[in-house]
Design goal:
21-stranded parallel beta sheet, elongated, mainly beta
Length: 277
């Protein structure tokens, strides 16, 4: 408890638990430039109020997450997490984390999971998976996240799944299979502000059910007939300023079933229109 070591340039592999474990309040090590692989739990794990900086590590082929946080407050920056059996980076137990500039590639479950009442800033990460059903990023169990300036490629049922409170701004979403899932899937009871993102190749850019949503100023291409689908309940849905690119004469930007709030300035534009550039 309270230790502040520097843990750098180590190879931590084939351990029965995590490659590197950090726990207890005020424990704030710098964990940098390590290789943590083929461990029976996470490559790097933090818990119980620890506050590590986890930077520029390579965490791969671990049996749990590449980097895991359970009730801790980590800064997770510029790590490469790939081919782990669970998440690339996973938060739970009311963790409070900053995830910036990481590469989470081809992990079996999500690239990033924010669960069990956790809070996260997820910014500028590269997130990719080919095949599989899980989303690339899941914010679940009433968790809260700001998701911005990330590159999403692929994903299963969604690029970003929301079961909580999320602001998603200025991200790029690209499907890697024809008519793949949803770019953003908002579950019942959630709150989402989805703005200034680019979507390409998903069946729907946003699919929201019985949630409080504001969806604005997004650019959408490669969708299947309806770019934004909202099935409301009691909360009015606000959808405005979105541009959908399609040559389908029956294409729609938005279909809202339920109460509407601000719904205006949504446009379908043909691919040959030079103003798309």
């Amino acid at each position: 408890e309270g230790a502040t070591p520097v843990i750098r340039d180590n190879k931590c592999y084939r351990n029965r638990r995590a490659g590197i474990g950090i726990r207890m309040p005020k424990t704030a090590p710098l964990v940098a430039a390590n290789q943590c692989y083929e461990n029976d739990m996470a490559g790097i794990g933090s818990r119980d109020g620890a506050e590590p900086i986890i930077r520029s590590n390579e965490c791969f082929r671990n049996k749990m997450a590449g980097i895991g946080a359970d009730g801790s407050r980590p800064m997770i920056v510029a790590n490469h997490c790939y081919e782990n059996d669970m998440a690339g980076i996973g938060l739970r137990g009311q963790a409070d984390a900053v995830l910036r500039g990481n590469r989470c590639i081809e992990n079996k479950l999500v690239a990033i999971g924010v669960t069990a009442g956790s809070t996260a800033i997820v910014e500028g990460n590269e997130l990719l998976r080919t095949g599989g059903m899980p989303p690339l990023v899941a914010v679940k169990d009433g968790s809260t996240a700001t998701v911005s300036k990330n590159h999403f490629t692929g994903g299963g049922v969604a690029g970003l799944l929301i079961q909580g409170d999320v602001t998603a701004v200025d991200n790029q979403f690209a499907a890697n299979n024809p008519r793949q899932g949803n770019g953003v899937w908002v579950w019942e009871g959630s709150t989402a502000n989805i703005a200034k993102n680019q979507f390409d190749g998903y069946r729907a850019a946003v699919n929201a059910t019985k949630s409080a949503v504001t969806i604005s100023d997004n650019r959408i291409a490669g969708f299947s007939r309806i770019a934004i689908v909202v099935k409301g309940d009691k909360q009015p849905s606000h959808v405005y300023g979105n541009l959908a690119i399609s040559d389908d004469s029956q294409a729609q930007v938005v279909d809202i079933q339920g109460p509407t709030g601000i719904v205006r300035d949504n446009e379908v534009r043909a691919t040959a229109d030079k103003t798309n550039q």
